[in-house]
């Protein structure tokens, strides 16, 4: 073969390789930027304490808007209805019997922490932030976060509603969280995606004898002109139907019922206070969304909103969570992923979703693999039909025991418990 021809063929081959590599580089550059993720957790918000879930009295326009831009899970539950255990399940994707958090004093083991989704996100290069109530143990893993603002600092099991700062300024916890969100978002850069966990105290009552709700300034008169319907199951016959070991004044659920809902007047005032706190949360979410829009990152920021457990507001003559009643274990859950808005906008999912599903779902949305140790499921695989939906789940609650909080185990389906 003539030398000139050989050179020409070699040139064509090299040129083809360069074109191929340049084309491959362009394909890679078209890969979408990793999403930012904000996980919002409320404390004691039951599933129907949300406008978009059918509550005609409670006003939550900002959360309703987010729900209408994403997926609203109509049948979301927690596997244990108490703050510390549910939060450990959310972070780890595990049931109580696996993560072994049974009380407020026990810290998650390093083995468990290293498999939580915030730890894995940070390991993958996410800039991680935490704001609010951590709610597990007395030594939370602050090192897993680049930005840490814990309202429980000082060894408190529950943060106070009125936060007092070193300069003497006093501020409601919800307003404190609002300010911290703005500070965090002002500090994020473009070099890496961010993950932010926002954990409200609201609408949890302030513990005491009796417990009390502390309302944000400006929300005190909200809902004053409405009458809250009393639940059918508030009739005393429902309390009397409980077995003797449960039907005692030593039961915390009955004690708190007396202080918050024991008279018609108390019921009206404190359900309204509960609603006022949730509307305050909604206002903070609205401010957060405005900031995301101003920073031009709303279109690449996933929002996940959930309650850590439900709340009995006088049903069956009790107040609180703990037990396997629908009011106690069913929670709101919204996931807004703007990257898939055209495909799943305003989708209302009927499948059972659990708190243990949050970790695998968030990791999947971030493009990370799901550890085999996680017992939850990627909810988008469930919604899309890629994997079968669950028909039931195991409910467990072991904190304290009788007579204060009788222990509970059970199986929950969509129809029966």
In short:
This protein is of the alpha/beta class. It has helices at 3-29, 61-67, 83-92, 96-99, 110-113, 117-123, 173-187, 236-240, 252-261, 264-294, 326-329, 341-344, 358-365, 379-383, and strands at residues 36-42, 71-77, 127-132, 147-150, 162-164, 170-172, 194-199, 301-307, 312-313, 319-320, 330-331, 333-336, 347-354, 392-397, 408-413.
| Silhouette | globular
Described by its quaternary structure, the protein is single chain
The secondary-structure element order is: HEHEHHHHEEEEHEHHHEEEHEEHEHHEE
Q: What helical percentage do the residues reach? A: 25-40%
Distance between the termini: 83 Å
- Number of DSSP strand runs: 15
Overall pLDDT level? 89
Gyration radius, rounded: 24 Å
Largest β sheet strand count, sense and barrel closure: 9 strands, mixed
Structure, described:
The chain is an alpha/beta fold and 417 residues long. The protein has helices at 3-29, 61-67, 83-92, 96-99, 110-113, 117-123, 173-187, 236-240, 252-261, 264-294, 326-329, 341-344, 358-365, 379-383, and strands spanning 36-42, 71-77, 127-132, 147-150, 162-164, 170-172, 194-199, 301-307, 312-313, 319-320, 330-331, 333-336, 347-354, 392-397, 408-413. Strands 1, 2, 3, 4, 7, 8, 11, 12 and 13 form a nine-stranded mixed β-sheet that branches. A two-stranded antiparallel ribbon has the order 5-6. Strand 9 (312-313) and strand 10 (319-320) form a beta hairpin. Helix 7 runs parallel beside helix 10 (264-294). The longest helix has 31 residues, at 264-294. The chain is globular and about 60 Å long. It starts with a helix and ends with a strand. Residues 1-31 have low confidence and may be disordered.
């Amino acid at each position: 073969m003539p030398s000139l021809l050989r050179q020409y063929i070699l040139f064509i081959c090299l040129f083809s390789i360069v074109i191929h590599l340049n084309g491959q580089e362009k394909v890679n550059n078209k890969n979408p930027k990793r999403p930012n993720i904000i996980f919002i957790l409320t404390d004691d918000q039951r599933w129907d304490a949300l406008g978009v879930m059918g509550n005609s009295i409670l006003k939550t326009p900002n959360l309703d808007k987010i729900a209408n831009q994403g997926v609203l899970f109509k049948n979301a539950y927690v596997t244990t209805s108490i703050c510390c255990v549910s939060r450990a399940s959310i972070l780890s994707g595990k049931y109580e019997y696996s993560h072994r958090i049974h009380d407020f004093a026990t810290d998650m083991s390093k083995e468990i922490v290293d498999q939580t989704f915030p730890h894995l996100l940070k390991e993958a290069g996410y800039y991680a932030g935490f704001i609010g109530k951590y709610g597990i143990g007395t030594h939370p893993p602050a090192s897993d976060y680049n930005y840490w603002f814990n309202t429980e600092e000082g060894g408190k099991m529950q943060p106070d509603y009125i936060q007092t700062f070193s300069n003497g300024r006093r501020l409601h916890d919800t307003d404190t969280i609002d300010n911290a969100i703005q500070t965090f978002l002002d500090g994020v850069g473009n070099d890496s995606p961010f993950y932010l966990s926002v954990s409200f105290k609201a609408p949890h009552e302030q513990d005491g004898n009796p417990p009390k709700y502390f309302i944000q300034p400006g929300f005190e008169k909200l809902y004053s002109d409405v009458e809250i319907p009393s639940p059918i199951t508030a009739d005393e016959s429902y309390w009397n139907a409980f077995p003797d070991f449960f039907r005692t004044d030593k039961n915390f659920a009955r004690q708190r019922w007396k202080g918050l809902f024991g008279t018609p007047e108390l019921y009206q005032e404190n359900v309204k206070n509960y609603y006022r706190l949730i509307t305050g949360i909604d206002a903070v979410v609205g401010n957060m969304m405005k900031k995301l829009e101003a920073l031009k990152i709303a279109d690449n920021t996933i929002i996940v909103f959930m309650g850590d457990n439900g709340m009995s507001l006088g049903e069956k003559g009790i107040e609180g969570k703990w037990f396997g009643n629908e009011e106690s274990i069913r929670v709101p859950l919204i996931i807004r992923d703007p990257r898939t808005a055209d495909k799943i906008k305003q989708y209302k999912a009927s499948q059972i979703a659990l708190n243990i599903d949050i970790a695998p779902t968030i990791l999947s949305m971030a493009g990370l693999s799901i550890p085999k140790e996680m017992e939850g499921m990627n909810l988008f695989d469930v919604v899309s039909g890629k994997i079968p939906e669950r028909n039931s789940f195991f409910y467990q609650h072991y904190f304290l025991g009788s007579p204060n909080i009788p222990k509970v185990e059970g199986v929950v389906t969509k129809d029966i418990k």
